[in-house]
Design brief:
By secondary structure, this protein is an alpha/beta fold. The protein is 20% helix and 26% strand. The chain has helices at 9-22, 40-49, 94-98, 125-134, 152-162, 179-188, 200-203; strands at residues 3-7, 27-29, 54-57, 71-74, 90-91, 106-111, 138-144, 172-175, 194-198, 212-224, 229-230, 235-236, 241-246, 268-270, 273-274, 286-291, 302-305, 316-319. It is elongated, with a radius of gyration of 24 Å.
Length: 320
């Protein structure tokens, strides 16, 4: 039983290198969480091969597998100092600075955005930067994490609102800007240094490109009749058909899609037909119930899996 991520190596590599080139050396790769489905070590190696020296990780708990060739910037503030000597923590409040007591090094100062997550407001920035200085720390950059909602016009408006509050000699790192918008920002403020943190658009493309395909193996099939029961919860079979046991489940990140129509909640497809589920995915197996007349996979076939790679845990990466 396998959840498999199939990657067209040449097309994927071409996309990654083209994305880096489009940002004209202003890109800082993000390698966090499950490594965007690839695993963090794979993406760390690629970042090194592409000549990067900085990489953004999600939390202090993702520092242990960062190679020595990379300086890791921790995107999420922590209430404990990192145990990685080269790490660059993010601070968005004086409490975050206090949590680093006794630790020495650089930090990224996180600015408040319309997401209203971590980040200091303009009227509190002076207090925070003073706390950073008094703690013996230095500021590598300011960071502004912008929302996916809206468009680049709205995101650029947020950036422009912050610029009068920031010293011109400290870089500003932003997110979710296209290469064209980053170029326009640089042209409008030639005396400032900007960079953009890029994860999903770099490793997957937005929307996700066809060079990445997530599939799962069919492990078993059997005929069932209406009124019989099957599954962990002895769910009643609503109609005659074929019960298909697929070798991937909640352990792999499979879950029902967020759809109001129950008929559209299955994340599994075969020959462009959605496979209705008998029960929600569970651990390593998902049970689909294929009605008579609909294309039905056989043992050994693969079904397409409609899930974000950032929440998927493939058993195998297949490079083609």
């Amino acid at each position: 039983m396998t959840l498999r991520l199939t990657v067209d190596r040449n097309a994927w590599s071409a996309h990654v290198h083209a994305t880096v080139a489009d940002y004209a050396l202003g890109l800082i790769p993000v390698v966090k969480g499950n490594g965007y489905g690839f695993g963090r070590p794979t993406l760390h190696r690629l970042a090194i091969e592409a000549g990067h020296t900085l990489v953004c990780v999600g939390t202090v708990h993702e520092l242990h597998d960062v190679p020595a060739e990379l300086t890791p910037v921790v995107l999420t503030p922590s209430l404990a100092a990192p145990d990685h000597p080269a790490a660059v923590p993010t601070v968005g409040s004086v409490q975050h600075v206090a949590a680093l007591a006794g630790w020495q090094g650089q930090v990224v100062v996180k600015l408040a955005s319309s997401m209203r997550r971590y980040g200091v407001a303009p009227d509190q920035l002076a207090e925070l930067t003073r706390a950073v200085s008094e703690a013996g720390l230095s500021t590598m950059a300011f960071g502004l994490h912008l929302p996916l909602a809206g468009d680049d016009t709205a995101r650029l408006t947020e950036i422009e609102a912050w610029l009068p509050h920031l010293p011109a000699n400290t870089p500003l790192w932003v997110s979710h800007l296209t290469p064209e918008s980053l170029s326009a920002l640089r042209s409008a403020h030639a005396h400032r240094t900007f960079a953009v943190r890029v994860g999903t658009a770099l490793w997957h493309g937005v929307p996700r490109r066809s060079f990445l395909q997530l599939t799962a193996d069919v492990v078993h099939t059997q005929a069932v009749s209406a009124g019989e029961t099957a599954g962990y919860w002895h769910t009643q079979v609503p109609h005659d058909g074929t019960l298909v046991a697929i070798g991937a489940g909640s352990t792999h990140g499979l879950a029902l899609l967020d759809e109001t129509d129950p008929a559209r909640r299955s994340p599994l497809h075969f020959q462009r037909h959605r496979l209705p589920l008998l029960e929600r995915p569970h651990m390593h197996t998902t049970l689909a119930l294929v009605p008579h007349g609909q294309p039905c996979p056989a043992v050994g076939d693969r079904v397409d899996v409609q899930r974000p790679l950032i929440t998927s845990a493939p058993d195998l990466i297949e490079w083609t």
